[in-house]
Amino acid sequence: YREAWDKDKTQISIPSDTPVMLQSKLNALNISNKHYQKAWDEAKAKSYDLRADAIPIKHAKASRDIASEYKYKETHEKEKGHYIGCRTAQEDPKLSWAARAMLLQNDRIYRKAYHDSKAQVHIPVDAMSVQAAKECQTLVSDIDYRQYLHQWTCLPDQNDVIHARKAYDLQSDNVYKSDLEWLRGIGWLTEGSVDVVKAKKAQELLNERLYRTRPEEMKFTSITDAPDVVQAKINALQMSDVR
Fold it and tell me: What is the full DSSP assignment across 219-232?
């Protein structure tokens, strides 16, 4: 399939001075990495002379000194202790304001007045709030809620003891379920149970066969001389291939 095209490719010749060829050469020069780095490679091959008093060297040194942390803090370190204007920290408005703000933000000093005065409050023991608090404490106290009864000593043939035993037997779960012990292991058919009957009734209500009557099961007699029946017969005769 490509044999003819492969032969024609070697026989095509385009003049080198056509606009397309010139444009392609310029594009090749523009995207060539070697041509792009040619001047840099030639400069690297030559020797260079860089003096210590050259402008780029001086600029680099000045930038380094400016960016140096030591040079940045040198003036501040020299001026420490030589502030002029206030003899003490209390006379400086800014220092006084900072100290006042620190005192206001200090939590210990903020709560000092409260801690000094909380032990000096005197409340009458018969105050309404104190009485209400005592009653609430009594209601929610677990010790007062659970008061264990002491051990009674009763005769076993007393009427109240016999009555209590009968009441305990009636309330006991073991006695309550003792009549069902004989049912364990016995098989049971669910036919006739309430759930089975309810499921059958629901199935009958949802059964489409019982809900709808099929058309073929309905008995009806069509009228032969009705207009639509007569028209259907005429159309059947007209469309019949045998006719």
Answer: -----TT-HHHHHH
Residue 32, pLDDT above cutoff 80: yes
Whole-angstrom distance, CA of residue 17 vs CA of residue 27: 15
Mean pLDDT of the 114-123 span? 78
Cβ-based neighbour number of residue 99 at 10 Å: 13
Q: Which domain, by its residues, includes 160? A: 156-181
- Considering the domain boundaries, does residue 165 fall inside one? yes
Count CA atoms closer than 13 A to 104's CA, side-chain side: 6
What φ, ψ does residue 48 adopt, rounded to 5°?
-130, 155
Query: Which range (107-111, 145-149, 166-170, 183-187) has the least confidence?
Result: 145-149
* Angstrom distance (rounded) from CA 233 to CA 224: 10
Residues with Cβ within 8 Å of 226's Cβ and at least 6 positions away in sequence, in order, are: none
Instruction: Choose among 134, 137, 118: nearest CA to 126.
Output: 134
pLDDT score recorded for residue 105? 80
pLDDT, residue 82, reads: 66
Strands (E), the chain: none
Entry pTM = 0.18
Average pLDDT of every residue of the chain? 80
Give the separation between CA 104 and CA 110, rounded to whole angstroms: 7
**Total domains in the fold of the chain:** 1
By residue count, the chain amounts to 243
Amino acid occupying residue 203: Q
Q: Is 198 within the bounds of a domain?
A: no
Residue 226 lies in a domain: no
* SS3 labels along 46-97: CCCCCCCCCHHHHHHHHHHHHHCHHHHHHHHHHCCCCCCCCCCCCCCHHHHH
pLDDT digits (tens, 9 = 90+) for 177-195: 777 777 777 777 678 888 8
